C-alpha cells in the first residue's frame, strides 16, 4: 500500500473546525487505501509558548480527537512524535542540507517570528520545517494530507528529499501534497479573508470541544456580506461562501444543492440551520473524546503500539540515511 503521513500540533485544548475539515476528514478517508501514519507533533509544539503539564494533557486530547474523528488504530498507526527518536535525528541531517536563505523564506516562520518578536522566537521556529520534512520522509510517504497553509513546507520537503537523493543516492520517496480543493482553507467566521486559526482565535474560531451552545452562537453571529442572495462566490461573498463550504462538508450536501435549497431565504436561515448541523456533529464528537480520554490506559496503549510500529519503519529509513551520509555504524 502507498503511505500517507500527517500530523497536528497539540497546541490548544481542542482542534478547530479548520483542522477537522482541512485535514482530519481527509486522513480518515485516506486510511482506507493507504498505510497511514498520523502523528501528534509534540516536538513542533514547543516552538511556541507551552506549559509542561498542559502539553501532556493536550497531547492525549489531540490523539483522542483523531480517534473520535474516525482514525482507526487497527488500520492506521497513531503516534506521538517524541516517542520516536528518529524524527529529531533525521531532522538534524536535513537541517544541515537546508540553506539559511531557503529557511528564511518560509512564510510561516516569517509570520510567527514577527508576531512573537526576536526575543520570544526560539531557533526552533526557524528549523521547524526541517523537522516536518523529517516526519514525512522517515515513513517514505507518498501523500501528505494537509490544509493549504502547509503547502510551502511540503515544497521544501520535496526539495530536501530530491537534494538528498541526488547527493547521496536514492533514499527517500518524494512526497506529494494532498490538498483538497474546497476545504483546504476554512476561513475565520469574523474575518473571512483570513484562515480560521488558533492564533486569531476568538469568536471567529470554532473549537470542536467547546460547549456546542457557544459554537452555535458564533455561527449565528458570523459576519455575512452585503446583499441578501445565498450564493457561492468567494470574491464577492467571502462570509457566505465560507459558511456554504462548512455546511456542505458537515452535511454531505453539495454547495449547489444548498444554493438551491436556500434560494429566496435569508442569511439568518442559513446560519440558524448551520448552527444546528454543527451541534449535531459536535455533540457526539465531544462525548466520544471524553470517553476516550477517560480511559487513559487504553489510550496510552494505542499510542504505545503506534510508537512501536513507527519506530520500526522510521528506524529503517534513518539507518539508511545515516549510512548514505557516511556516518560510521556503531559496531
Ligand atoms: P497544525 O497543527 O497547525 O494544523 C493541523 C492541520 O490542519 C490544517 N489547517 C487547516 N485546514 C483548513 N483550514 C484551516 N483554517 C486550517 N487550519 C489548519 C493544517 O494545514 C494542518 O494540515 N506543521 C503542521 C504539523 C505537522 C505536519 C507534519 C503536517 C508537523 N509535521 C508532517 C503534515 C506532515 C501544523 O502546524 O499543522
From TrEMBL:
Keywords: Aminoacyl-tRNA synthetase, ATP-binding, Cytoplasm, Ligase, Nucleotide-binding, Protein biosynthesis. The keyword Disulfide bond does not apply. Its EC number is 6.1.1.2. L-tryptophan binds at residue 135. CDD domains: TrpRS_core (cd00806). It catalyses: tRNA(Trp) + L-tryptophan + ATP = L-tryptophyl-tRNA(Trp) + AMP + diphosphate + H(+). It is found in: Cytoplasm. The keyword Cytoplasm applies. ATP binds at residues 9-11, 18-19, 147-149, 186. InterPro entries: aa-tRNA-synth_I_CS (IPR001412), aa-tRNA-synth_Ic (IPR002305), Rossmann-like_a/b/a_fold (IPR014729), Trp-tRNA-ligase (IPR002306), Trp-tRNA-ligase_bac-type (IPR024109), Trp-tRNA_synthetase (IPR050203). One of its GO terms (molecular function) is tryptophan-tRNA ligase activity. Belongs to the class-I aminoacyl-tRNA synthetase family. Homodimer. Catalyzes the attachment of tryptophan to tRNA(Trp). NCBIfam families: trpS (TIGR00233). This is Tryptophan--tRNA ligase.
Amino acid at each position: 500500500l502507498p503511505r500517507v503521513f500527517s500530523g497536528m500540533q497539540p497546541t490548544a485544548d481542542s482542534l478547530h473546525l479548520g483542522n477537522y475539515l482541512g485535514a482530519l476528514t481527509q486522513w480518515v478517508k485516506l486510511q482506507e487505501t493507504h498505510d497511514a501514519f498520523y502523528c501528534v507533533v509534540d516536538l513542533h509544539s514547543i516552538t511556541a509558548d507551552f506549559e509542561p503539564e498542559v502539553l501532556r494533557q493536550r497531547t492525549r486530547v489531540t490523539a483522542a480527537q483523531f480517534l473520535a474523528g474516525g482514525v482507526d488504530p487497527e488500520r492506521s498507526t497513531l503516534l506521538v512524535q517524541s516517542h520516536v527518536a528518529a524524527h529529531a535525528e533525521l531532522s538534524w541531517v536535513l537541517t544541515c542540507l537546508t540553506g539559511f536563505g531557503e529557511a528564511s523564506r518560509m512564510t510561516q516562520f516569517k509570520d510567527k517570528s514577527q508576531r512573537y518578536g526576536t526575543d520570544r522566537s526560539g531557533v526552533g521556529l526557524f528549523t521547524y520545517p526541517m523537522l516536518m520534512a523529517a516526519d514525512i520522509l522517515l515513513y517514505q510517504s507518498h501523500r501528505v494530507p494537509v490544509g493549504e497553509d502547509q503547502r510551502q513546507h511540503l515544497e521544501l520537503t520535496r526539495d530536501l528529499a530530491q537534494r538528498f537523493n541526488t547527493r547521496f543516492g536514492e533514499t527517500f520517496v518524494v512526497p506529494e501534497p494532498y490538498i483538497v480543493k474546497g476545504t483546504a482553507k476554512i476561513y475565520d467566521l469574523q474575518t473571512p479573508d483570513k484562515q480560521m486559526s488558533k492564533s486569531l482565535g476568538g469568536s471567529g474560531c470554532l473549537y470542536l470541544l467547546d460547549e456546542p451552545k457557544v459554537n452555535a452562537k458564533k455561527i449565528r453571529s458570523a459576519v455575512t456580506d452585503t446583499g441578501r442572495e445565498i450564493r457561492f462566490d468567494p470574491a464577492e461573498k467571502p462570509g457566505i461562501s465560507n459558511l456554504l463550504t462548512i455546511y456542505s462538508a458537515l452535511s454531505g450536501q453539495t454547495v449547489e444543492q444548498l444554493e438551491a435549497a436556500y434560494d429566496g431565504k435569508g442569511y439568518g436561515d442559513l446560519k440558524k440551520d448551520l448552527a444546528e448541523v454543527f451541534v449535531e456533529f459536535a455533540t457526539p464528537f465531544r462525548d466520544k473524546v471524553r470517553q476516550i480520554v477517560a480511559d487513559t490506559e487504553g489510550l496510552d496503549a494505542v499510542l504505545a503500539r503506534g510508537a512501536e510500529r513507527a519506530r520500526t519503519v522510521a528506524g529503517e529509513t534513518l539507518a539508511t540515511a545515516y549510512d548514505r551520509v557516511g556516518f560510521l555504524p556503531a559496531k
